[in-house]
Amino acid sequence: MVYVAGVDGGATKTICVISDKEGKILGVGRSGPSNYHIVGIEGAKRSLREAILSAIKDACVEIKKLEVACFGLAGVDYPEDKERAQKFIEELGLAEKVVVVHDTHIALMGATAGKPGVIVIAGTGSVSAGIDEKGRYVRSGGWGYILGDEGSAYDIARRGLIAALRARDGRGKPTVLVEKFMKALNLKHLEELIRKVYVERMGATEIASLAPIVSEAASEGDEVAREILDSAGRELALLAIAVIRRLNMEDKEFPIALIGGAFRAGEPLMKAFKEEVLRVAPKAKITEPRYPPAVGALLIALQEAGVRISDSVLKNIEETLDKVRKIY
Questions:
Q1: Quick check: 3 and 18 in contact, CB under 8 A?
Q2: pTM
């Protein structure tokens, strides 16, 4: 019997899914972080090994070696990163063939079930990716909080903080964001924000966690907050539109799956996003992801094992998907 695995390796957790060549999910495993830029190569290897062996144990079948294992990893943005990851994963000796891709790629494959489509991810950062009927993969955004991440939770919060400072100076419109940020950050004076950001080194993740304050202000009718969300929606739409145009999908019917908390920021963001995207690709359907990323990695592993992703394979995945959803 032949078995394949899909692995979703991130900065906080690692998920492994094992199936047979018919797509029946047999076992799942979970372990700690496997972004080697954060935990080091040995730490990444330890988490990957633990997740795979846990999934093999859960499968309750004898698996001496996987035929193919696809690893969708955070932090493999450059060819040298991918080569380094490929090398240390092959050293584990758990699969005959190792495939390493960016974690955005497996998120896309899972979201669209390997069919043509687009994803937009908007959490702390932002990125979009798409795949066409020929299997061509393109990506837009993902440049990090200094050079990009437009429309993300970080971007929304940062714009909110800037708007509060502009209002304080008299350079911008009055906004309730001034009082809301002061309360949330326990500031006596808005000027204390300088210490928070520049002295205490308030990081991107911590800044991103303030995005709900902008959402709250927008829901209360604050004009400045609503403008920030509207702008964020249009920026996220630009990410998707860039992918759609590069894949020549403007006139096609395909899903656009939305992933990440920024899409729950409020009505102004979603309204602006839909308007912009559907103006360019009117037949597109805005949806939720069909499968989680580890299943996207599994689909790539199946393809690499020579399996066509047929309706029967997808049916087998659907029927055995519950255990994957429980472990995420």
A1: yes
A2: 0.86
